[in-house]
Amino acid sequence: MDRAPEIGLHDSSPVQHNESPLEYQGSLQRLSQDYLKPNIGLVYLIAAQLFNSLMVVSTKVLETDKTIDPNTGKPLTPIKPLQILLARMSITYAGALLYMLINRRSIPDAPFGAPGLRIWLFLRGTVGFFGVFGLYFSLMYLTISDAVLITFLAPSVTVLLAALVLRERFTKAEATGTLASLLGVILIVRPSFLFGQPEDLDSSPAESADPGKRILATLVGLLGVLGASTVYIVLRYIGNRAHAIISVAYFSLTVTIVSSIGILVIPSVQFTWPHGPRQWFLLINLGVCGFIFQLLLTMGIQKERAGRGSAMSYTQLIYAVIWDVTLWHHWPSKWSWLGMLVIVGATAAVAHYKPKEPIPEPPLQESTELQDI
C-alpha cells in the first residue's frame, strides 16, 4: 500500500521532465516569432537609450562637477559642451572607421556611402549636431530628468515633420498630443513670468536657481529637439540604402568638425585639458557609449516608422530620475512630475489612436521634392 504512491510519483516525473523542455523551447520560439522579430527595431532602440543615459550622466558631471583636485587643492574646471562633443565624437568616429575596416567586405560603399546618398548623410550629420548640442547645453542648468523630458517633444515634432516631408498622416489625436507635450514642457521649465520667482531651488549642480539660465537652456534644448526630429526623417528617407555604421561615421565626423571650429572661433569657449583620471574616464566613456548608442539607434530607426521608433526615447525617463536621485539626491519637483505625466500621457494617447493601416515608404523618385523642401 505504501509503495503505490511512490510508483505513481516516479512514473509521473519522467513525463514532466521530458515535456517541460519542449514546452519551454516552444514558448521561446513563439515569443521570438510573434514578438521579438516583428519588434526587433524597438529592441535596438531601447538598448540604445541605456547607453544614451550613461552618456548624459557623464556629460552632466563633466559640465557641473566641482570636485577638489587633490594636486592643486582647487575645484576642477568644468568642461564646455563643445569640448565634450569633440571628445565624444572623435572617439566615436575612430570606432566607426575601425568597424568599417574590419567589416569592409560586408559594408557596401564604405566609408563614404553611395554617391547619391552622400548629401543626405552629410545632412544627417549637420542636423544631428544641433540635436545633441541642444541636450548637452541644457544639462548645464537643468536636472537630467528635466533636460531629458524636453527631448521627449521629439516624437511629436517628428510626426509633424513626417507628415510634411514623408507624406505620413497627421491625425487630430497627434495634433492634440503635440500641444499637450508643449504644455508639459512649460510645466517643467516653469518660466518666472508664469510661475513667479522660485523659492525652493538651491545652487547645487543638479539644477540652476536662475530662471533666465533655465529659459536659455530650454530654448537651446528645443533647438535640439528640432534637430533630433529631422534626423529621424532623414534616416527614414535613407532607409536601408546606406549601412548604419556609415551614417554613424558621417554624424560623428560632422560633429567633430563643427565642434572644433566652434572652439577655435567662439571666444568664450576655451579648450581645457581634462584633469585627473576621473574626467579622463568620463570622456572616454562618452566616446565608447556614444559609438554603441549611435549604432543601435540607427539600426533601430531603419527598421521602424519615424513616429513609433522615436517614441522609444521615453525609456530614458526611468534612467534620468534614477541618476538625479542617486547621484545628486534631487527628486523632481511637483511641476516636473506633472509635466512628466502630461508628456507621457500625451504620447500614450497618440500611440493608442494611431492609424491602423500601414503607411507606405516614400518612393525613391521623390528625391527632387525632398531636395526642394
TrEMBL record:
Compartments (UniProt record): Membrane
Gene Ontology terms, cellular component aspect? membrane
Q: Where is the signal peptide?
A: none
Q: By its UniProt entry, which Pfam families does this protein fall under?
A: EamA
Residue ranges of the TM segments? 40-62, 82-101, 121-141, 147-166, 178-195, 215-235, 247-268, 280-299
What are the protein's UniProt keywords?
Membrane, Transmembrane, Transmembrane helix
Among SUPFAM superfamilies, the record links this protein to:
Multidrug resistance efflux transporter EmrE
Q: Quick check: keyword Transmembrane helix in the entry?
A: yes
Protein's UniProt name: EamA domain-containing protein
Protein source organism: Zygosaccharomyces mellis
